[in-house]
Amino acid sequence: MSDLVTKFGRNSFGFRSDIPLTDEQLFRIAPSIFAAGKHESRSDRYTYIPTGEVLAGLRREGFQPFMVAQSKSRVEGKSEFTKHMLRLRPDGQIQNQEAFEIILINSHDGTSSYQMLGGVLRFVCQNGCVAGDIIEDIRVPHRGNITENVIDAAYKIVDDFGAVEESIDNMKGTRLALPEARAFAEAALSLKYVCQEDAPIAPEQLLTARRY
């Protein structure tokens, strides 16, 4: 299980849907997604990263937002710039128990770096916990000429999903008999521990799925 850099708990608004969310629905919960620039408190060195542009690009690649969250702010006028989170899945896979997913976190007021995770994930809760296998984890501070690179990184994650899907299918198609599986586990342990007695777990424990 992976923790996101930014957590969304009681001090936030959130909404999850079984169908793709429209811009109107996203704006109602997280207007900062569509901010046209950075908050006035930021200096010239702060680089604005347009969440809306990244979202538009991912939609063109077939990914649709199904969950949105945004932190609350007590500062007047700052709610249009504060940290926000989007979770996106391929169109038609939103209700799947497990699917390729992209998680995007950003802000325009300095409360969060830009973060994008991609992987085979499952919905757990709204407090920033992710269950599954993370394939990509991109974290970018708001500094320098990075906007184009951030958008390109989103496309890279989408491209990587194709290779991962093929690898997953190949692994799922491989079946080992129990003696073969035990031999595989023993060989894996031997890569780190010269003596099997020194290993903190038994080979059989390596064969037990521990995905949360």
UniProtKB/TrEMBL annotation:
Protein origin, superkingdom: Bacteria
InterPro entries, A to Z: DUF932
Pfam families linked to this entry: DUF932
Name of the protein in its database record: DUF945 domain-containing protein
Origin species: Acetonema longum DSM 6540
